[in-house]
TrEMBL record:
GO molecular function, one term: pyridoxal phosphate binding
Native source species: Bathycoccus prasinos
Residues of the MOSC domain: 154-345
Phylogenetic lineage: Eukaryota, Viridiplantae, Chlorophyta, Mamiellophyceae, Mamiellales
The name this protein goes by in its record: MOSC domain-containing protein
InterPro entries, per the entry: MoCF_Sase_C, Pyrv_Knase-like_insert_dom_sf
Signal peptide: none
């Protein structure tokens, strides 16, 4: 067992974000497999209607082929970074996504449904089905539900719901298409099979930035709590390192090292250069403020920390952009839960 001095922190939050851009699903525990993220993380996305009309994107190829094309690393891009996120509705383009939580569940067909789904040879089809619930964060009520993701008519319920609400959804072009493919994540980094990454942030660094910004001229942050502030960064795992003597920004020293959480071993890859979606401020009341520019302001409050991106020589991270958190890859699967300690291997 690790001694207290060797503990880097403990897991305080675990999240998965089933629908790209929408709020996540809080978990008490989960299982990880090598080179995969939290189950169901960014497994769904809303493809823009104009993309469907212009390219017939979903009609000419299989979903897996389409996903592989979209998630290809663009010319001149860093490894695992694709350049096609503009094809989808995102939080930065459609802040209304921040008003909704998405919960993805899986269950067996009921006995009645199984009878209807018998195979031709008379055997019962025991397939499981995935259900997607859209929950209004402010009221915690279900406002739309797809009872079976494999059913086109059921997906239409979700597609129509967001077509009527998203800022950049132009219904004259049609409605967004809810897309998915086995083993694919529509994250901005590491979406293809065996390339998935997890995003980790630490509470000490979050608190440092939060308190710095709170006393600044950006009044948009004045009513938000620390937890609400951390929500902006859409982490899969939040590590509370405040009780183990963790200092802000020290997590960048973890890069290139292996850590253990529960049964799981992770390789800490690199610092996370933030995408513009951190400009959207949501709170626990399910309200979304106007889009602000915290990435610029956050950079002002960040120290001149150096870090290695994709194994290259260390650079001054603020020259690259706003940065916060770490990308990690699972190299040994297992279970993690709230309260698990994080230690070096």
């Amino acid at each position: 067992m690790s001694s207290p001095s060797s503990i880097l922190g403990t897991v305080s939050h675990i999240y998965t974000y089933p629908l790209k851009g929408a709020n996540g699903q809080k978990l008490a525990r989960t299982s990880l497999t090598p080179f995969a993220s939290i189950p169901n993380d960014r497994c769904l996305a809303l493809l823009r209607a104009e993309t469907i009309r212009a390219n017939k994107w979903m009609e000419e190829k299989s979903t897996k082929e389409n996903a592989d094309i979209v998630l290809q690393t663009g010319e001149g891009k860093d490894p695992q970074h694709h350049s096609n996120k503009h094809l989808f509705h995102q939080l930065i383009t459609d802040p209304q996504l921040g008003k909704y939580e998405c919960v993805l569940t899986e269950e067996d067909f009921s006995n009645t449904e199984r009878k209807k789904n018998n195979n031709e040879d008379g055997n019962i089809n025991t397939s499981r089905r995935r259900q997607l619930s859209i929950i209004e964060a402010k009221t915690k009520t279900v406002v739309a539900r797809c009872l079976n993701l494999d059913d086109e008519k059921e997906r239409l319920v979700i597609e129509t719901f967001f077509a009527e609400r998203l800022e950049t959804a132009n219904t004259q072009n049609g409605i967004p298409k809810l897309v998915f493919a086995d083993g694919i994540s529509f994250a901005n980094v590491g979406g293809k099979v065996k390339e998935h990454v997890l995003h980790i942030i630490t509470k000490s660094t979050a608190r440092e930035v939060y308190e710095s910004i709170k006393v600044s001229s950006d009044s948009s942050n004045s009513d938000s709590s620390l937890e609400e502030f951390m929500m902006r960064f859409r982490a899969n795992i939040i590590v509370d390192d405040t009780t183990s003597g963790g200092d802000p920004w020290k997590e960048f020293d973890w890069c290139g090292k292996k850590v253990r959480i529960g049964d799981v071993v992770l390789n800490i890859n690199e610092p996370t250069i933030r995408c513009p979606s951190t400009r959207v401020v949501a709170n626990n009341r399910g309200e979304v403020d106007e889009v602000i520019q915290p990435d610029v302001q956050i950079r002002t409050h960040f120290p001149d920390v150096e870090g290695s991106i994709f194994g290259r020589e260390k650079i001054k991270l603020s020259d690259k952009g706003s940065y916060f958190g770490l990308y990690a890859s699972c190299i040994k699967g297992g279970s993690i839960r709230i309260g698990d300690a994080l230690t070096f291997v």
